[in-house]
Amino acid sequence: MDMIELDGRQGEGGGQILRSALTLAMLTGKGIEIHHIRGGRPKPGLMRQHLTCVLAAQTISGAWVEGAELGSTRLRFVPGAVTSGDYHFDVGSAGSTTLVFQTIALPLLQAKGASTVQFRGGTHNPMAPPLTYLKRSFLPLLREMGAQIELDVQRWGFMPAGGGCWQATIKPSVLSPISRLQRGELLNCRLSAYEVGLSNQVAERELQVFCRSAPMAVTETRIRQPKSSSPGNLLAVDLHFEKTRICLTELGRPRLSAEKVAGNLLKQVNRYLQSDAVLDEYLADQIMLPMLVAGGGEFRCDGLSDHGETNRQIIARVTGREMSFQDHILRL
Questions:
Q1: Which residues does the UniProt record annotate as the domain RNA 3'-terminal phosphate cyclase (predicted)?
Q2: Residue 328 zone, left/alpha/beta (φ > 0; ψ -120 to 50; rest)
């Protein structure tokens, strides 16, 4: 079999290339060979969460794989047919389980039967979509396109301990293109502060700071203490518009004050509301592969991140299909 060769130093030079390439290989049946994996990162090569993505993809597709080792900078991956089943994937660290999910979800939607997939590891990590964002921003879009996916969360897992546990039920689905070019009027805004094992009234301070400077009326505030294996904090705002919904999140971290967390989320909200975008830059990146499966679609975005541009390049390289981004509209 001819292998499609990819350079892991391309674009943003991170794990995005690996994950998108694995998904595309399983969707198209094409073999891929990646050199210089994560070549743009201070520590190149496969880390635990990246290796888990490879092993998960290998498991569901019966793939032949070469180079699936920690630290490996080269990978060859030839998929077989994607098979439904009951799967369990453990990152073995606080590495992101949501990125593992996004690697295998679309191929499993194409399988002949339903699958249940249990994930263990990190659920709320820096530099990865938090599970909360996945549930309330990414998955609603996929469901609008026709995806039948449900999540059951048993336990959150913050950095650095991880230990999160959740399950996805993925049923065979046909995705259809959708168009989202306008948000409409803002109807509702809910602000949620999640905290586990923290003192000094972190959640209350975050709510107060955000509401005091919010550019819109906050119609509901709430504090939640989710079940978690380790201490942690997340601030999330759900914005419900006439024609769309989005959840923006900011992860608390050690030595980052409650006031700073709230301020960072306010910056996100201000940037989003001052634009005409329907998707934020993260959703713009994440919706590209579902658009490919659906065979089309169009979304208004404020801009594309380095991840997004790299994703466009990988899709074109593997499939030959060009995804356009003009006048702030992403189209296929």
A1: 11-323
A2: left
